[in-house]
Design brief:
By secondary structure, this protein is an alpha+beta fold. It has 20 helices and 21 strands. It has 4 domains: 221 residues, Nucleotidyltransferase, domain 5 (2-Layer Sandwich); 140 residues, Nucleotidyltransferase, domain 5 (2-Layer Sandwich); 42 residues; 374 residues, no CATH class. 35% of the residues lie in helices and 18% in strands. The strands form 5 sheets. It has a 5-stranded mixed β-sheet. InterPro entries: ATPase_NBD (IPR043129), FtsA/MreB (IPR050696), PilM (IPR005883).
Length: 855
């Protein structure tokens, strides 16, 4: 009797493993088995080993459930993936795949060989003259993340056939089980949508769909653990005890106190959901939300459903069964009934495996799929090879008979003639090779004289690169990763961005004061200065930096590399070996000093700087596929050559004075480098032809300013705009650094001069100038703080004589440091003067000379 093939949908969560088996019986998906295995510890607890606990759960699952002959569909966290919905331009249908690959390169912020991606047509428009308008869903995930999740199943001996992101599996559950009739409209002609809110352990997922073209998802950074921590804090309980109290709150006699302790988290949670629903409503005017369905173990909390319904003014439902699932042996099992709210993701995975789902994309790496196809065809290939060998033997015997009848003298004559022709050809090739060698030698001598020309623009590209990574909120900005949209995609953040754009649109008035309202919600920074120092001992410099961080910033409890704030982002999202060791050899140490006003209850300043500046810098510096319209020379200096990015420190200035800085008035790494080694740091004596340029005029180290520079406006924040350019002032007393990137910030009145890092763009070689010394106003004294505060707090009056109260928002100063190993291929072309035997014209003036610093 043939064994019926089924599909296992397996969802490995932070709290438990949920699995359900479906197969088609009488034309309907029927549940035939399930399993719910709770982890001994929550995977995100500090003392938990996620890999070991996941492996134990899978082994326990295998011991209780035979899976031979079944397909396995695996869910992966949505926070690790990327989902984009793109409307393609009208193209011929046969060219859609080529257009999608082009769009993938634009939409996915990583090289395509480092990700696994798939797409699906979501909707199709009108067809005109063979051209069709198509909307697609593009889904991707880093290849190393998928390999990590797959390794758990592979070590347990489970062969995975389908990989889907959990939010999309949840969407499949909603469209299949809750919306069986497909898309519909209300009496006003608006599309009816259903909201699914999955309250997870560490975070939650919100999905909105109309069972057709609308598939909208947002992560919410709040989950069940936040409720547990609230109980831990308010009721003075251990984490394990608080988790037990939360799960049994309905039976507890202390329920009022429990709900009181949970209220602040509930308020934050409802606020995030309201902001997400509000944003969806504003961007989808043709849609309306019919109701919300709540799933996840968090919805077992007493009063959760009623509280959300009241605060959101929305019909909130908690499912008690799966409408389209059959199979009494599963549906009536006590364990399934008790944990039913935890199974929708596994249910959605299994329906996709059966071909019953709305979304059908699969993130299984293509090489694994190809390997399985080859493995399935091996028996047939062996049989074909055997038949081929047999046929070859028969042919060989047949051809050997007429060959033996041929005359040997005729064959030998032809062989001799061929040898003579080969000898003549070898002689000609040798002469050609000799001429080519002479040309190459001459070319090398010429290149050794003009070497360094290719690196003249390296520092311009570096400053352009820093300009481009600074945070810009909005749909067209650069803060669109899963963990970045929360920085600005909320009511207050959108209002702050709108006010900023309106202020720019209306023009900057020199005498107008800056609107302080919503300033702390504007996801933007001001760069006050960029300082660069060359060192031949990067490891020594980072040793000194680590000692400083441990002694002066109170990070001594953290071990390398996590005492370098931001190392975890590089390891988690980009390269797991990024901080395996400190940088070695020689290179540039780059210091970015800046300010921001951003500080919200959900995302404090430190986390904002990590996500908006550090993460942007890491992502933009990754090596990627070359654009066919861009030469390798243009992209080589930056991409793939930046490493060890971290947040040096940040400070709060509660009474900021425009142009006056408490900690970033001068470079904080200058005192670190001299002790890093015997040849630790250098302005430019170690630099190659592509040395950092210095301006001429008020920002030049060789020029002085008779009067201090006066800012256009008094203060404010910035989220865009180009750098001021090489050589402009970067704030009071800033030694060597880049031009100021700011829309509203202003340097102080001090006339301190600077250079754009060590060295000058002009000249024919030799040593280049070091950064200018700091002017007045670097570290403000206590008296200066008091005087500044007094000026800020001096009362002002309106036309009626009433005092005007002005709210001063705190400003946060920060320093970001990273290593840039500037590639200088022209160094290999330098030939000693004694080796040049032919006269070659000298290189024209105006560019840096060959070699490092003209040596």
């Amino acid at each position: 009797m043939a064994v019926t093939s089924g599909v296992w949908g397996i969802d490995v969560g932070q709290c438990a493993l949920k699995a359900i088996r479906l197969e088609i019986i009488d034309g309907k998906p029927t549940a035939t088995a399930f399993d719910y295995i709770e982890h001994p510890k929550i995977l995100s607890q500090p003392d938990a080993n996620p890999d070991e606990l996941t492996k134990e759960a899978l082994e326990k699952f295998l011991s209780r459930n035979p899976i031979k002959g079944d397909k396995v569909a695996m869910g992966v966290p949505g926070q690790s993936g990327l989902a984009r919905f793109v409307k393609l331009p009208p193209v011929e249908e046969k060219k859609i795949d080529d257009i999608v690959k082009f769009e993938a390169k634009q939409q996915i912020p990583f090289p395509l060989e480092e990700v696994v991606w798939d797409f699906q047509r979501i909707g199709q428009g009108q067809i005109s003259d063979g051209f069709v308008e198509t909307e697609i869903g593009l889904f991707a995930m880093k290849r190393d993340m998928i390999s990590r999740f797959l390794s758990h199943f592979q070590s347990a001996g489970i062969e995975v056939h389908l990989i889907q992101m959990s939010p999309l599996a949840l969407c499949n559950y909603v469209t299949y089980d809750l919306m069986p009739d497909g898309a519909s409209k209300d009496e006003r002609g608006k599309k009816k949508c259903v909201v699914a809110l999955d309250l997870g352990t560490d975070n939650s997922n919100l999905i909105i769909t109309d069972a057709d073209k609308i598939i909208w998802q947002r992560p919410i950074p709040l989950g069940g653990n936040h409720f547990t921590r609230a109980l831990t804090k308010e009721m003075k309980l251990t984490f394990a005890k608080a988790e037990h109290v939360k799960r049994n709150a309905a039976k507890s006699p202390d329920l009022p106190n429990i709900l009181k302790a949970l209220r602040p988290v509930l308020t934050d949670f409802v606020g995030e959901v309201q902001r997400s629903l509000g944003y969806f409503t504003n961007t989808h005017r043709d849609a309306t939300v019919s109701y919300m369905v709540g799933i996840g173990s968090g919805f077992k909390l007493p009063g959760m459903q009623k509280y959300l319904a009241e605060k959101l003014n929305l019909d909130v439902r908690k499912p008690s069964k799966f409408d389209r699932m059959t199979g009494d042996s599963v549906l009536n099992a006590p364990a399934f009934i008790e944990n039913m709210l935890s199974f929708p993701v596994a249910y959605g995975l299994a329906t996709q495996g059966l071909g019953q789902s709305r979304l059908t994309t699969n993130l299984l790496p293509p090489e694994i799929h190809k390997e399985r196809l080859i493995r399935a065809k091996k028996p047939w290939a062996v049989a074909a090879a055997a038949m081929f060998m047999m046929g070859t033997g028969v042919l060989a015997i047949g051809y050997s008979m007429p060959y033996n009848q041929a005359q040997a003298t005729i064959i030998q004559s032809a062989i001799d003639e061929g040898k003579n022709a080969k000898t003549r050809a070898d002689k000609i090739n040798k002469e050609i090779a000799s001429k080519i060698s002479d040309v190459e030698a001459t070319t090398k001598k010429v290149q050794s004289v003009i070497s360094g020309q290719d690196e003249r623009k390296n520092w311009i590209r570096m400053y352009q690169f820093i300009d481009n990574i600074l945070p810009v909120p909005g749909e067209n900005g650069n803060l669109n990763d899963q963990n970045q949209v929360v920085l600005w995609q909320n009511q207050l953040g959108l209002e702050a961005s709108k006010r900023y754009v309106d202020r720019l649109r209306n023009g900057l008035q020199p005498t107008a004061s800056i609107d302080e309202a919503y300033r702390e919600y504007l996801a933007a920074v001001d760069v006050e200065a960029i300082n660069t120092r060359f060192t031949t001992n990067l490891k020594g410099a980072y040793d000194n930096l680590e000692n400083y961080l441990n002694i002066y910033t109170g990070r001594s409890s953290k071990e390398f590399p996590y005492n370098f704030d931001g190392a975890d982002l590089a390891i988690k999202y980009f390269n797991k070996d990024a901080w395996k060791e400190k940088p070695t050899g020689e290179g540039w140490l780059v210091e970015i000093r800046g300010t921001t006003f951003y500080n919200t209850p959900l995302v404090p300043t430190r986390e904002f700087l990590r996500r908006a500046v550090i993460q942007n810098l890491l992502r933009a510096s990754q090596k990627r596929e070359s654009d066919p319209n861009t030469t390798t020379r243009e992209i080589e200096p930056i991409l793939g050559n930046i490493s060890h990015v971290f947040l040096y420190n940040y400070w709060t200035d509660k009474m900021p004075d425009p142009g006056q800085y408490r900690r970033i008035g001068s470079s904080l790494i200058e005192e670190i480098l001299p002790a890093a080694g015997s040849e630790s740091a250098s302005d430019s004596s170690q630099s190659s032809g592509g040395s950092p340029p210095s301006g001429e005029g008020v920002g030049s180290a060789s020029a002085s300013s008779a009067e201090p520079w006066v800012p256009l406006v008094s203060a404010g924040g910035s989220m865009g705009g180009a750098s001021s350019g090489p050589g402009e002032l970067a704030g009071p007393g800033s030694p060597g650094g880049g031009g100021r990137k700011s829309g509203f910030g202003s340097p102080g009145p001090g006339p301190g001069s600077m250079t754009m890092g060590p060295g000058s763009l002009a000249g024919s070689g030799g040593k280049m100038g070091s950064g200018g010394g700091g002017g007045s106003g670097t570290y403000a004294s206590k008296d200066a703080d008091t005087e500044s505060a007094a000026v800020q707090q001096q009362p002002q009056f309106d036309n009626n004589g009433n005092p005007i109260r002005k709210v001063i928002k705190p400003r946060y100063e920060f320093v970001v440091v990273f290593v840039w190993k500037e590639p200088t291929p022209s160094d290999k072309l330098i030939t000693p003067a004694s080796d040049i035997t032919e006269s070659v014209p000298a290189a024209p003036a105006g560019g840096p000379g060959p070699g490092r610093g003209g040596k």
